[in-house]
C-alpha cells in the first residue's frame, strides 16, 4: 500500500504498447475532442450544452432548464449515478481504465511527455537517484512547464462549458472565470507533477465505492493463478507454472501493485498488465496470464450477467428514463415565479377596494421566438388585474409588478389564488396569497 504522507514509494510505470493501449489512445482522443469541441457546438444559436451558472440555466441539446426545474436536473444526476452503478456491476472499473479524465490525461499526455524528456522507467529511476543535477533540473523544469501549460489549456476547456468558449478564448470573460481556469490548472499541475495514482487510491469517491459496486460476477482484470503458479524465474519448465516472473506486469502498473496478488482496490483496470504479459507469454506459446475475467470464473464457476443488483439498477434506470422523458415532453416554455413585493401586505384604496402588489418573474424559455404574455388571476371574486404589457424575446427574463384589486369585504384575511400567464400558444400557473384586513375594517 502506498502512503502519501512521507512514506510514498514513487511509481515509475514502464512504457508498454499493445491492443489495450491503442484502445486507450482511441478513447482518449474521442473524449478529449468531446471536452474541447462540445462547448463550440450551437443549436439554433444557443449552446448545445452549457452550464450557465450566473443565469442559473442548463442548456442541453436545444432544451433549456432553469433553477426552478431542479427536479429534472436531480433526475438527470440520479440517472448518471445509477448508470455508473449499473456499468460498474457489469464491467467493473472500465470507467477508471478507459474513460476517467485522470487516466486519459495521465496516459495520453503526462506519461508520454515524461517518457520523452526523462526516458523510460529505469532511466527515470537512475536520474532521480542521482539527485538534483543540472541534467535533472532542466528536464524537470521543461516537464513541469509543459504540465502547467497543459493544465491551463484543460482549465480553459473545462471553463468553456460554463462561461462559453468565445468569451473565454478571446479574453472577454470575467476575472472570476480566469481565476477558475488558474485554480483548475494549478490543481491539475499538482496532480500530474506529484499526486497521480494517489488520487485514485485515496481521494476518488468512486474508487472508494468499488467494494460495494463490484461483485463476483463483475468484469475485472485478473491473473490466471491456475496456469501461472507455481511461478518460476527464467524459462518455463514442465514443473513450473507458466509465469516466468519477468515482472513486466508489475513494472508497467501505474498503481504500483502486483496483479498476481489478486483483486486489489488500487487496480484501475487500465489493462497495461495484460499488454505487458502479451509481450511475453505468446513467445512461449501461451496466451497472456493476465486477462479480463470475473472472480466467479476464476473460481471455476459460471458468470451471471443477470443478477439481483443488475435487475434493480436496470429497473431504476428505466423508471428514471421514463421520468426524464415525461419532464422533457411536458417541458413548459414559460417559467413563472410570483412573489409579494417586499415590505407590502395590502393597501385600501379610496373606494374601499383592497390592493395587493406582487412581483411577477417571467422567462420566455422558447429559444427561437418572442412572445406576448397576458396575465389572469383565478380564485378571487370581482378581481381587477393591473400589469404593464409584457413581451419577451427568446430566453429573456423580466420581473414586472402585478397589482391585484378586489372589492372591500369580498375576501378573508388570507385567500389563496392562482396567477396564470398565457402566451399565444401555452400557459402556466403559480400559486399566490391575497392578504386583506379583517372584514370589520382596518388597513395597513
Ligand atoms: S494491475 Fe494492471 S490493470 Fe490494474 S492498475 Fe495495474 S496495470 Fe492497470
Ligand atoms: S508479465 Fe506475465 S509472465 Fe511476466 S511476471 Fe507478469 S504474469 Fe508473469
Report what the structure shows.
By secondary structure, this protein is α+β, with helices and mostly antiparallel strands. It has two domains: about 1-330, no CATH class; about 335-435, Immunoglobulin-like, CATH 2.60.40. The protein is built from 16 helices and 16 strands. Strands 8, 9, 10, 12 and 14 form a five-stranded antiparallel β-sheet that branches. Strand 4 and strand 5 (about 65) form a beta hairpin. Helix 4 packs antiparallel against helix 6. The radius of gyration is 31 Å and the shape is elongated. The chain binds iron/sulfur cluster (SF4) (2 copies). The site of one iron/sulfur cluster has 16 residues, from helix 13 and helix 14. One iron/sulfur cluster binds near residues 245, 247 and 260.
Percent range for helical residues?
40-55%
Specify Rg, calculated over alpha carbons: 31 Å
Write down the overall mean pLDDT: 91
**Distance linking N and C termini:** 72 Å
The secondary-structure class comes to: alpha+beta
Give the overall shape, derived from the CA principal axes: elongated
Amino acid at each position: 500500500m502506498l502512503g502519501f504522507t512521507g512514506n510514498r514509494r514513487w511509481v515509475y510505470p514502464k512504457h508498454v504498447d499493445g491492443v489495450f493501449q491503442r484502445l486507450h489512445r482511441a478513447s482518449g482522443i474521442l473524449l478529449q475532442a468531446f471536452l474541447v469541441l462540445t462547448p463550440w457546438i450551437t443549436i439554433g444559436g444557443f449552446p448545445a450544452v452549457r452550464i450557465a451558472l450566473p443565469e442559473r440555466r442548463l442548456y442541453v441539446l436545444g432544451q433549456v432548464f432553469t433553477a426552478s426545474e431542479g427536479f429534472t436536473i436531480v433526475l438527470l444526476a440520479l440517472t448518471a449515478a445509477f448508470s455508473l452503478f449499473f456499468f460498474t456491476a457489469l464491467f467493473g472499473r472500465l470507467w477508471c481504465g478507459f474513460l476517467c479524465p485522470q487516466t486519459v490525461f495521465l496516459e495520453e499526455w503526462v506519461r508520454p511527455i515524461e517518457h520523452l524528456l526523462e526516458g523510460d522507467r529505469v532511466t527515470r529511476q537512475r536520474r532521480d537517484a542521482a539527485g538534483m543535477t543540472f541534467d535533472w533540473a532542466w528536464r524537470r523544469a521543461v516537464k513541469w512547464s509543459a504540465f502547467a501549460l497543459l493544465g491551463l489549456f484543460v482549465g480553459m476547456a473545462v471553463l468553456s462549458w460554463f462561461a462559453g468558449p468565445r468569451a473565454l478564448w478571446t479574453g472577454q470573460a470575467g476575472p472570476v472565470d480566469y481565476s477558475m481556469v488558474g485554480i483548475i490548472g494549478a490543481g491539475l499541475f499538482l496532480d500530474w507533477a506529484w499526486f497521480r495514482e494517489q488520487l485514485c487510491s485515496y481521494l476518488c469517491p468512486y474508487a472508494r465505492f468499488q467494494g460495494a459496486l463490484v461483485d463476483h460476477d463483475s468484469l475485472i482484470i485478473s491473473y490466471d493463478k491456475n496456469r501461472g503458479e507455481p511461478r518460476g524465474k527464467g524459462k518455463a519448465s514442465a514443473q513450473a507454472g507458466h509465469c516466468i516472473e519477468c515482472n513486466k506486469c508489475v513494472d508497467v502498473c501505474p498503481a504500483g501493485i502486483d496483479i498476481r496478488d489478486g483483486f486489489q482496490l488500487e487496480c484501475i483496470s487500465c489493462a497495461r498488465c495484460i499488454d505487458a504479459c502479451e509481450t511475453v507469454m505468446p513467445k512461449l506459446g501461451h496466451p497472456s496470464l493476465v486477462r479480463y475475467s470475473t472472480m466467479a470464473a476464476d473460481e471455476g464457476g459460471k458468470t451471471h450477467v443477470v443478477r439481483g443488483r443488475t435487475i434493480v439498477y436496470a429497473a431504476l434506470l428505466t423508471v428514471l428514463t421514463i421520468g426524464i422523458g415525461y419532464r422533457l415532453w411536458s417541458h413548459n416554455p414559460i417559467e413563472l415565479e410570483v412573489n409579494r413585493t417586499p415590505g407590502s401586505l395590502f393597501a385600501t384604496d379610496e373606494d374601499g377596494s383592497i390592493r395587493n402588489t406582487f412581483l411577477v418573474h417571467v422567462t420566455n424559455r422558447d429559444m427561437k421566438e418572442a412572445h406576448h404574455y397576458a396575465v389572469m388571476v383565478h380564485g378571487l371574486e370581482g378581481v381587477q388585474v393591473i400589469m404593464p404589457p409584457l413581451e419577451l424575446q427568446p430566453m429573456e427574463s423580466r420581473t414586472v409588478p402585478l397589482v391585484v384589486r378586489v372589492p372591500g369585504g369580498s375576501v378573508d384575511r388570507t385567500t389563496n389564488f392562482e396567477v396564470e400567464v398565457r402566451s399565444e400558444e401555452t400557459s402556466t400557473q403559480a400559486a399566490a396569497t391575497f392578504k386583506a384586513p379583517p372584514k370589520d375594517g382596518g388597513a395597513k
